[in-house]
Amino acid sequence: MVQGGGGAPPDLALRAPAFFLDRDNTLVRDSGYVHQPRYLELLPGVEPALLRMYRAGWRTLVVSNQAGVARGHFALADAYAFNEALAFEVERIGAAIDEIRFCPHHIDGRIQGLRKECNSRKPGPGMLLEMARDWNIDMGRSVMIGDQATDVQAGVAAGVRGILVQPGELDRIVCRVLSEDLQRKSYLKEVNRGIH
Predict the structure, then answer these.
(1) How far is residue 130's CA from residue 63's CA, in Å, rounded to a whole number?
(2) Annotation says 11 is catalytic
(3) Domain containing residue 164: CATH number
(4) Which of 7, 26, 168, 170 has its CA 20 to 30 A from that of 176?
């Protein structure tokens, strides 16, 4: 399921790196099938992390498994409403989520049509690969960050580095990724100096 965020329309002629981010227990506190906007709570460190991503010019792309839809715990409309509230909250702090995608499928689901295997459900790489194509993402510089092994596995399957995060650690990891990227770019600039 595709849902726009608050980002500006992309200049698809320019390849940009992306932070692919899990939603629950990476960006927001997960109290168990969180789906009501009134329970939206950004985790500590998320605000500065999102501001760093935005100011660095990286795409911020959220990819989330939402099996609660297939299992009948909440409706698709609830998932969309929660994601809209998240995008609004991120805009309020001065950053942006370029897009939020989620997979409502689960093989053990109760809702007809949503009870199935799906390559978009992490650890499948489907959501990441679709977003990489749609946003012209530089996958060699991009990362997938989440709190579950399936997040890391989805990143690796899509061809990006997967990083496991504990709730509240996102800003530290974002700082490290951006620092490593800057060092790599400086190194390449030095290597290529004087080569025509």
Answers:
(1) 11
(2) no
(3) 3.40.50.1000
(4) 7
Q: Which candidate in 24, 78, 147, 171 is catalytic? A: 24
| Separation CA 192–CA 82 (nearest Å) | 47
Say what the pTM is: 0.88
Catalytic residue flag (residue 181): no
Q: Is pLDDT above 90 for 28? A: yes
SS3 call for 43: coil
* Residue span of the structural domain in which 87 resides: 2-192
Neighbours of 118 (CB within 10 A): 17
**pLDDT score, position 112:** 84
> Largest alpha-carbon pair distance within the chain?
63
Rg (CA), the chain: 17
The total number of structural domains that make up the chain: 1
Catalytically annotated residue among 11, 22, 138, 151: 22
Please report which helix (H) or strand (E) contains residue 192, including its range. Answer: helix 170-192
8 A C-beta contact, residue 34 and residue 28: yes
